[in-house]
Specification:
With about 110 residues, the chain is an all-beta fold. Helix content is about 0%, strand content about 50%. The protein contains no helices and eleven strands. Strands 2, 4, 5, 6, 9, 10 and 11 form a seven-stranded mixed β-sheet that branches. Strands 1-3-8-7 form a four-stranded antiparallel β-sheet, with no helix packed on it. The protein starts with a strand and ends with a strand.
């Protein structure tokens, strides 16, 4: 049972990235999926959460209107589309299944000119 994040990198302010989280070894479609982030010296922060079948999506205040979470229950992947990135979005982003207490290794996102 694991999740593996990918898609991070270095991007200029105002740019976009799409993160992916691939799930293995469990019935992906039955779980809420979340993205959290943690920057050095800061607490972990909820970025986005998507319910099963994508029926509801919740976002942290800092990313509302700029980020979009989605899921593909056939491919067992959850995505995080990040637009209009800001330097304060710099962090390690983790895919997290709260019901299982399971997260991936994270992917680094750095927003800098």
């Amino acid at each position: 049972v694991q999740v593996v994040e990918s898609g991070g990198g270095l991007v200029q302010p105002g740019g976009s990235l799409r993160l992916s989280c691939a799930a293995y070894g469990f019935t992906f479609s039955t779980y809420f999926m979340s993205w959290f982030r943690q920057a050095p010296g800061k607490e972990r922060e909820l970025v986005a959460r998507i319910t099963t079948i994508g029926g509801r999506k919740d976002y942290g205040d800092a990313v509302q209107g700029r980020f979009t979470v989605s899921r593909d229950d056939v491919k067992n992947i959850v995505y995080l589309q990040m637009n209009n990135l800001k330097p304060e979005d710099t962090a390690v982003y983790y895919c997290f299944i709260e019901a299982l207490g399971l997260r991936g290794q994270g992917t680094q996102v750095t927003v800098s000119s």
